[in-house]
Specification:
The chain is of the alpha+beta class and 293 residues long. It folds into three domains: 96 residues, 2-Layer Sandwich (Ribosomal Protein S5, domain 2); 39 residues, no CATH class; 138 residues, no CATH class. 60% of the residues lie in helices and 14% in strands. The longest helix has 70 residues. The radius of gyration is 33 Å and the shape is elongated.
């Protein structure tokens, strides 16, 4: 069992600077991979995406690849493209004459237009970057990312199983309370008849029929049996090394449905209270299931 939350990073040498890759993951119902890397290497995006897709099946994964300056070498990894700035200034001058006012240039504009850029060495192709550095960084960062997801998953598994055991105890309590409901109804019915001086024998056909109908209406044995089956499936999935988040989420919905039916058929204040407690515990389980791949 893996969590969808994780982080991994790796740094390697690259020319006069260092190359760093950071991978982070958060919860998402579907798989979503966001890749940010220098423009000259954009051709490697699909290769990176394919590799990450083979590892994760669910969650949003952000991959950031950038040049890292060495200590004491601030700005050495940036390039100023003077010819582009001269062309931009000429163009803005023409626009200013038409508008009757000058147009200001901001630092953000210079970066967006590529006038100030990362100093990616032009003689090194994307394929050479992949073979020399980037492929190894991707493997290393993904190993850290996967290890953290597995560690988080183990914590989630422990908590889910503990809460599942709580639900099992509540189910046993419901079972005991459910068996007492027909008996309590019979006692209450006989007491009411006695108050109105309407005495019936215990084997009176009308009394037996009324008790039988009531027992059938409030019978929750099927619901409790299905709950036990869902609990067993849930526990088995928690031990799986495959992505099980969607299946666990579906089981939570089914468990809620059985609890809801049990509560509506309860005809017992104590049983209804236990169902409410079970729903509260189930909601805590569902919150954690949203973190599982």
């Amino acid at each position: 069992m893996n969590s969808m939350t994780g982080f991994g990073a790796a740094t390697g040498p690259f020319g006069a600077a260092g190359l760093r890759m950071e991978i982070s993951g958060v919860n998402r119902r579907q798989a979503e991979i966001i890749i940010s890397l220098p423009k000259p290497w954009s051709g490697l995006e699909q290769r990176i995406r394919d590799y990450v897709s083979s590892v994760i099946s669910r969650g949003r994964v952000n991959i950031n690849i950038f040049l890292q300056q060495k200590d004491g070498d601030e700005g050495a990894s940036l390039t100023f493209r003077e010819e582009k700035l001269v062309a931009l200034k000429t163009l803005l001058g023409k626009i200013g004459k038409i508008n009757g006012s000058s147009v200001q240039i901001t630092m953000d504009s210079l970066i967006r237009l590529g006038i100030i850029t990362d100093n990616v060495e032009p003689n090194i192709t994307a394929e050479e970057v992949w073979r020399s550095t980037l492929c190894d960084l991707l493997h290393e960062a993904m190993q850290q990312f996967s290890a953290m997801r597995a560690t988080e998953g183990a914590h989630l598994q422990k908590e889910l199983l503990a809460r599942l055991n709580t639900l099992r105890r509540m189910r046993e309590e419901m079972k005991c309370l459910a068996t007492e409901v027909p008996t309590r109804y019979k006692e209450a019915l006989l007491q009411r008849l006695k108050e109105y001086d309407l005495m019936f024998k215990n084997d009176d056909e009308r009394l037996v029929k009324e008790l039988a109908l009531f027992a059938d209406r409030c019978d929750v044995s099927e619901e409790l049996a299905r709950l036990e089956s869902h609990f067993n499936q849930f526990e088995e999935l928690c031990s799986s090394d495959q992505p099980v988040g969607r299946t666990l989420d579906f089981l939570c919905q089914e468990i809620f449905r059985e609890l809801n039916t049990t509560g509506s058929k309860a005809n017992s204040a104590q049983l209804a209270q236990t169902v409410v407690k079970a729903k509260t515990e189930l909601e805590k389980i569902r919150e954690q299931v949203q973190n599982i791949e």
